[in-house]
Amino acid sequence: MRYFYGEFDGSEFPSPDKLFGFDQLMQFILQYGDQALKAIEQMMRDPKNDAQSELLEKLINEGMLDKDGKGKIRLTPKAVGRMQRRALMEVFANLRTGRREGHEKITPGPGGERIDGTKPYQFGDPVSELNLHQTLHNALARHGLPQSTAGRPAPIHFDEKDFELHLHEGTTSCSTIVLLDMSGSMMRYGRYLAAKKVALAMQALVRSKFPQDSLDFVGFYSGANRIPEALLPLTMPKPVSIYDYQVRLKVPIDQLSIAPQHFTNLHMGLQLARRILRKRTSENKQIFIITDGQPTAHVEGNFVQLLFPPDRRSTVATLKEAVLATREGCRISTFALIEDYWGMEWVGFVDQLTKLTKGVAFYTSSGELSNCIMESYLSGRKKKAYIS
């Protein structure tokens, strides 16, 4: 055992409740997912852990944790909400300044704060937002001051071109699907923990600031599934179960649950994202892809092909699905986590994906992921652009 000595800074030594408070517990759950809850259950049953058991019971009494009928610990909606807000605070504490705070657009009529400026009236605009001062000025400038007759004031003549409306800062609705890579490699370098924290932060942001938006999460691995809000903190990457140099497996979709789960089936993730977005009525639709590798699986008919090393068939199937999404009006942004790759061969896939969909690509580390995603979401750019 090694000992390290340093000058005492005068700070108070933490008590057991501070060492094992709610924030530390939530970090533990985020890092280890469902396994963390099982460890907490064992801790509460261990008579040697009286202090920790009392603290956990306190969290249960405060409504942060709950027990089901079988005595299993689970997170409450209150706990998930607090985790989301804390994640949002962490993300915004690290965001660079000078960025816009929302995806606003300038619109006539109600819907936001009134701002300087006016616009000409168009058929269908709300008359309640008529700018009387500018409208009267236009009428007098075009037609002049009316001359009174027989001591009676003459009416002011108005044309349709005279009418102008106030401008308002309105918001546009947006439906976002976040595709989370849950393949085995996402466990390295804290990638999935970083992705999960930014996902929680986005949930808190949408709920508090953009309630008109919709936000859904889809995890993709050998298959793909929608992730419910309450279960997001407990999700983890799939453990690697095959170490063969080459893998070529053809698995029926209805038997995929018993197959190795650690492959990267972005193809199926995009299919599910498209199905979800078809049901949304938002003005704007977008797909965020968080991944650390090129596809190693794809769907062929009623089968899933699990292929390693990555096969061109998976690449082509995934690119075709992405193009179909853009044809349905979806904007695709890819966040490629690249910190431990020396070869970078898979970056070529991200490059192809971005060019074909005329989307946006961010090559980033886990530490910068939150900056990239939040700034992309908050900027609300409606123009599609390719960033090389």
What number is the mean pLDDT? 79
Distance between the first and last residues' Cα: 49 Å
The total tally of domains equals: 3
Order of helices and strands: HHHHEEHEEHEEHEEEHEEEHEHEH
CATH superfamily heading of the largest domain = von Willebrand factor, type A domain
Find the structural class using helix and strand composition.
alpha/beta
Q: What strand line-up does the widest sheet have? A: 8-7-6-10-13-14
Overall geometry: extended
In which range does the helix fraction lie?
Answer: 25-40%
Rg over alpha carbons: 28 Å
**Number of DSSP-assigned strands:** 14
Q: Strand portion, in percent?
A: 15-25%
At the fold tier of CATH, the topology name of the largest domain is Rossmann fold
- In the CATH hierarchy, the architecture of the largest domain is 3-Layer(aba) Sandwich
| Helix count from the secondary structure assignment | 11
The top-level CATH class of the largest domain is Alpha Beta
Low-confidence stretches: 13-17, 96-111, 381-388
Largest sheet: 6 strands, mixed
Question: What are the main properties of this structure?
Answer:
388 residues; alpha/beta; Rossmann fold; 3 domains; three-stranded antiparallel β-sheet; 14 strands; 21% strand
